Amino acid sequence: MSNEDGGGRGDATRLVHGGRRKEWTGAAVNPPVWRASTIQYDSVAEMRARQHDTHHQFYYGRRGTPTQWSLADALTEMEPGAAGTLLYSSGVAAVTTALLSVLKPGDELLMVDSAYEPTRAFCDGLLRRHGIATRYYDPLIGAGIEALATDRTAAIFMESPGSLTFEVQDVPAIVALARARGIVTLLDNTWATPLFFPAIEKGVDLTILACTKYIVGHSDVMLGSVTANSEHWQALRKTSYSLGQCASPDDAWLAARGLRTLDVRLSRHQSNALAVARWLDEQPDVARVLHPALEDCPGHAIWKRDFRGASGLFSFVLEGGDDAARTALIDGLELFGIGFSWGGYESLVIPADPHRSAIPWTAEGPLVRLQIGLEDSGDLIADLAAGLERFREARG
Ligand SMILES: *Cc1c(COP(=O)(O)O)cnc(C)c1O
After folding, report:
1. Confidence at residue 8, expressed as pLDDT on a 0 to 100 scale
2. H helix or E strand, kind and range, residue 348
3. Which pLDDT does position 7 carry in this prediction?
4. N6-(pyridoxal phosphate)lysine modification sites (predicted)?
5. N or C: which terminus of the chain has fewer CB atoms within 10 Å of its end residue's CB?
6. pTM, entire model
7. Both 233 and 313 in a single domain?
């Protein structure tokens, strides 16, 4: 438990001060990188005593060192009402471990149809092989999810907004229904981060971040986290430990460095992305812009009600054209790297082709996803204007 000293302080203050205990930092500002496998004890008695509670105690390298504990505590402090946070070697490891901590054979999982593709693959592969059935639901279902819940439904997984198509989910309505029926709720909160959507406060049981994205913020580290409320914290720890999950101290150190500037980075991602999205929205070759802060985006009203901001990732649907015309747009971009992941300081683009099973994806033309970085938005817009020109020529 580490959010007790939150004391009502603001997000930016907690981002700067979270997890910086004197016994971990020494006289420096940041904790050093403690690399350890073996931890040495003064006596057999001390060794035995430590086994009773290893949380934030030197025990064995797999349970971490102050470098990881400091980051985990800082993430917990960003989630009022949370009991604790564990770190993982990637966002996918965080997603899969969180799911395994709440599911058992015979259970049924309700999974949002707009989920991150590897999350889907885990449900359709490993979970299914172990006797856990997944049913996909419309991201805009809201309280209507009640009709899908059965006596076997053990968990509802949400991702809001979806990271290709940006439907904003009615998390409070789903959480209320799940609580009434004893169903556990999990949220992939990578897009909003706790700054724009404090998930535990909103009633979610387990909230997941691909720290690889905005927490790290510099496109050079793989890391994940799960933050749990007190009801689910012990089960999460047990499952994580038995799966041998841990994160490297070097990666945790880099992620903590990124975390301190999350507030200023996100506000620039937000304003840059909004400038680009609003410009795209006025272009005749763009059918729709899927950005939660724009009215065209499914779930926009829910975003307005529940979120404190919008980050820098969104998509747009081209007006007609095919994959070749979309490729002409993308391949010539000068400031946008072509690549997966997002949340770093630099802009990225990918062609997106959503895979759906509850409701098929249909649109006026191909979909393009943008991660808007910290460049000057005018330069990004000029680059995209030239891209739309290439698209028009290729579309004919
Ligand atoms: C990238 C991503 C993940 C997985 O994170 P990795 O660190 O790449 O494993 C999970 N969820 C969402 C929404 C993501 O964008």
Report:
1. 80
2. strand 348-352
3. 58
4. 213
5. C
6. 0.97
7. no
